[in-house]
Amino acid sequence: MFQESTKLSLREVMLTALLILLSQDLSSRGRAQAWSYGYSSSPIYKWLEARQWCQQHFTDMVFIRNQEENDYLRDLLPANKRHYWLGIQKVEGRWIWVQSNQTIPPEAQIWAQNEPDQERGQNCVEIYIQRKSESGKWNNEGCHRKKGAVCYTASCKQNSCSVHGDCVETIGNYTCKCHPGFQGPGCEEAIECKPLSDPEHGFRSCIDPYGPGRFNSSCRFQCDLGFQLVGVPQLQCQASGQWHHPVPLCQAKQCLALDDTNITTGRVNCSNPIAPHSYNSTCKFRCNEGFEIKGQDQIRCDHMGKWTASVPSCTVKKCPQILFPATGNMTCTDTLGPFTFSSRCNFTCRKGYSLAGDNTLTCLASGKWSKPVPSCKVKQCNSLKDPPHASMQCQHPLGVFSYSSICSIKCNKGFHLIGTNVTKCSSQGNWSHELPVCKARPCPLLAEALQHGMMNCSHLYSPYSFGSLCDFQCNEGFRLRGNQTLTCQTSGHWSQNPPSCQPVHCGAVHPLSSTLLMNCSHPLDNYSFGSQCYFTCKEGYSLNGTEELFCSASGFWNDSPPRCMAKRCPSLSSPSHGFSSCSGPHGKFNFGSQCTSTCDKGFILNGTAKTECTSLGRWSTDMPHCLARPCPLLAEAPQHGMMNCSHLYSPYSFGSICDFQCNEGFRLRGNQTLTCQTSGHWSQNPPSCQPVHCGAVHPLSSTLLMNCSHPLGNYSFGSQCYFTCKEGYSLNGTEELFCSASGFWNDSPPRCMVEGLPLGTALLMYTGIGAASAAVPLLLIGLAFLIVTQLKKKDSIVSDAPAWGDRENPAFEF
User: Fold this and answer.
1) Name one GO molecular function term (predicted).
2) In whole angstroms, what is the distance from residue 88 CA to residue 150 CA?
3) Dist. CA 477–CA 663, nearest whole Å
């Protein structure tokens, strides 16, 4: 189930079957998606290849979280002399679980003695399995070495638990650990609290993120107007299934009890719809006859628990006080107080005066006298008034304008008298003389027109006479020089000379810098009302402020003089993988600024290095880019091999890394990895894949015939040699040899035997026959003996060699 190799040991087969049974047993008990392990001990992989194999066939490489899992795997996995890779690596000086990129705490690290060592490049971790010592311990190794792979299939899936629970892996199973406030197998159900009800005279508003009345529900309570909350205003459903406080109550707000000690001469009547002296209670007040209420006659307990007014009081009604003159007498009877309800007053006059009105008055319950107050009056003359523009002084020994009154008249200043100035009230009630007349003194006439202004005159008595006022007003933008108002005085002269109208001044305007240009016009006077100044800036600058100033009627310029600001270009940022340096006479990114861009090592500039902010507020050239420096293109893969490249920035540029690997039967000549450097050159020349060699075959016997084919090179991987014997000989051994991918011939070379006899015997017979027909028998016998001896030695060497090739014997001869 979990093995990739086709050649499995008996122990590996049994372990695979046990894992299958374990998965089936968990499934039969309802434990779906149970956590299980898998491994590969043959073939073996580099660390990255091992992880890719695990991710292809399972979830990922095992990354051991605790001692329990470590011991379980130590006993589970079969022996492997190269051991197994784990999903643990060293990154930036720390050992991490590669799946989560988390640092492994020291207590969870299970290192062998004196491990991990600090040798460079040993950044991957293996676990010792079935080792004589320290089995189940860890060791750091170079990631390029090849080892077995141990993998796991995770039990926790994306939908194993709800978002309110955490899936916890266990060996062979998983559980859902619910967050506080949630329950159920998958933590999908929020805990429910007891239902709430609205308080009487109140209401609630709730927020239920997980359902009504469930965990984290929040209810805020409020009372109706006139009621107050007793208790906690907001309740929350806790993870325990209880509200954290009882439901609050709504009580009617209470007013203070009334103090009715001030209403002894009246009465009070109260209505209490909820409770005595509480919200909406109303009290009405009434006073007895002859008394009046002081304050409001009705008060109410409002929603704040306060009476709308203070308790009123009943006071006796009073009639207006009577002050009778000394020319008469007044006698009063007062039961409840002077001039109060039920008081009675009697009136009489002295000799020479007569009573006008009733002689008895009574103070009524309405607070008014029953009749108008009488008086004792002396005989009267007609009333006199001051004549126009004059003052009158009178003496009244017995009363105003009465018998013996004397009046004298005097004209006011600015007027002269026409008539008699004294008159007297006679005993018959008549005046002795008519009142005189007073006439106003005249002033000189004024011109009606005023340049840039106007005149408005008012005549109190007669045109341009004493009391006449003339106001002068200038048109808008002009200021009065002289007094605004002239008055015709008592002497018959004007108070001042007539004024004139002059234009207002705003003050001179001066440009703030040499880059600001100004052009002004003055229709009335320099920098006065109506003057206008226009502003422009030199090339490369823009106006900051108004371009036109005018002197207003108020004597102020409509705005401050503008300034010329250097035009600003859009802000620039350094190119990616580069740096920009900017400077200028008017500040960064302003008119005249220059920016120079450079690239980091390994990158080249694409565009113009320098750009300048022009007078139009634009950069003279576009911002350049930094492109990764390219390396020469590589062929897709070496012949009889493969190439795998990763490109950090762009294809075949700085930072690109290419790994090379040869097909079976071929050996890499050159570096396995090439890196594109900052100079734009590869770190090495590309490698090539050369076929492995098995060693040359050289036949020495003339009876053995050999025919070889070399598709890839002499005596290299794929070479085949076919053997036959000459007539009269038979082949002893394989008739075909081929050079395998491992660099060895598949078998030993064959031998040629005389048909029916051993080779040595056949040679002797051959030499015997030759002696009968030759002249040199002794020479042939010696030659035959030498050949037999050499062949026996060679056969002995060949028969003792089980496998052969270029690793042990550079060539084979027979």
Assistant:
1) carbohydrate binding
2) 12
3) 102
Residues in the chain: 814
> In this structure, are residues 716 and 705 in contact, taking their beta carbons and an 8 Å threshold?
no
d(CA 657, CA 672): 11
- Phi then psi for residue 443, to 5 deg, are -115, 165
Reported as a single tens digit per residue, the pLDDT across 117-142 is 988 889 999 999 988 889 999 999 99
* Ordered structural domains, the chain, with CATH: 10-154 (3.10.100.10), 191-252 (2.10.70.10), 266-316 (2.10.70.10), 328-377 (2.10.70.10), 390-440 (2.10.70.10), 453-503 (2.10.70.10), 516-566 (2.10.70.10), 578-628 (2.10.70.10), 641-691 (2.10.70.10), 696-813 (2.10.70.10)
Q: How far is it, in rounded angstroms, from Cα 337 to Cα 346? A: 17
The enclosing H or E element of 19 equals helix 10-28
C-alpha distances (whole Å) from 182 to each of 105, 208, 209, 375, 518 are: 30, 14, 13, 100, 78
**319 neighbors 368 (Cβ within 8 angstroms):** yes
**Which among 174, 152, 171, 155 has a CA at the least distance from the CA of 2?**
152
Strand, coil or helix: 784: helix
- Three-state secondary-structure class, residue 144: coil
162 neighbors 186 (Cβ within 8 angstroms): yes
Residue type present at position 447: A
Regarding beta strands 375-377 and 354-356, do their DSSP bridges make them parallel or antiparallel, or are they unpaired? antiparallel
Contact 14, 20 (CB under 8 A): no
Tens-digit pLDDT profile for residues 336-388:
888 888 889 998 888 767 788 888 999 998 889 989 989 888 888 898 888 98
Give the strand pairing for 532-537 and 516-521: antiparallel
**Residue at 485: amino acid letter:** T
**Angstrom distance (rounded) from CA 632 to CA 652:** 7
Residue 469, phi then psi, degrees to nearest 5: -125, 130
Dihedral Cα 396, 401, 403, 407, nearest 10 deg? 60
Q: Are 577 and 599 in contact (CB under 8 A)?
A: yes
pLDDT (0 to 100) of residue 599: 94
Is residue 17 packed enough to be buried (19+ CB in 10 Å), middle (13-18) or exposed (0-12)?
A: exposed
